[in-house]
């Protein structure tokens, strides 16, 4: 809801726990609730903006008003829900096919036809090599400056500068090859070359009854 022109594909799992007629009923119910949620969000944003504009000293709320206007302009496209039975490999392939069909839709993703400069592919290939090298730790965390120096050692990337690397990292972050939290001050100089490591960490740290487990330790 905070990202411009977002596209969301809802996925309903546990189809194997439902009767066939239930699946369609639940699909309609979920889609209706999401439509209502978006309508409520739009109404709430308009209400907040109206209140700020009608305040006695609106200049004091200009920053807040600008943030709300930005959020108001963030469109959100919700695609039809795909219902899957996760225990059936055929359903997983059906979901994969649905995702591929949507991401190739130029109306949904205008940038899908954008031609990337060759250096984007060269840096991507070099980063994959670095991530898979024996000297790279399993966690795949590297300092941004160190990554730039490693890439610059490649003959065809000798002229790579920090600004261009950051642009390429933003692209690689969007496609999920790396994770780079440039907006977080304490992480802006760290690049995660192994996103699966973060998933493993989150699974260990963010889980059911974690607080109770920690409190049980003397």
Automatic annotation (TrEMBL):
Entry's InterPro entries? P-loop_NTPase (IPR027417)
Full protein name: Malignant fibrous histiocytoma-amplified sequence 1
């Amino acid at each position: 809801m905070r990202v411009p022109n977002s596209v969301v594909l809802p996925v309903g799992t546990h189809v194997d726990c439902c009767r066939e007629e239930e699946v369609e009923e639940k699909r309609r119910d979920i889609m209706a609730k999401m439509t209502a949620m978006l309508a409520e969000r739009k109404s709430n944003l308009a209400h907040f903006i109206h209140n700020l504009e009608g305040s006695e000293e609106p200049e004091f709320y200009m920053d807040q008003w600008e943030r709300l206007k930005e959020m108001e302009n963030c469109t959100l496209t919700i695609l039809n829900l795909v219902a899957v039975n996760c225990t059936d490999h055929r359903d997983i392939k059906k979901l994969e096919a649905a995702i591929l069909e949507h991401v190739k839709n130029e109306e949904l993703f205008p940038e899908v036809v954008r031609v990337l400069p060759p250096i984007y592919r060269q840096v991507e290939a070099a980063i994959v090599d670095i991530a898979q090298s024996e000297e790279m730790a399993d966690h795949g965390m590297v300092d941004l400056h160190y990554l730039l120096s490693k890439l610059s050692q490649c003959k065809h990337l000798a002229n790579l500068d920090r600004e261009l690397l950051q642009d390429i990292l933003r692209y690689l972050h969007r496609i999920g090859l790396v994770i780079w939290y440039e907006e977080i001050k304490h992480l802006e100089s760290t690049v995660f070359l192994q996103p699966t490591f973060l998933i493993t960490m989150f699974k260990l740290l963010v889980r059911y009854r974690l607080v109770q487990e920690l409190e049980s330790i003397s």
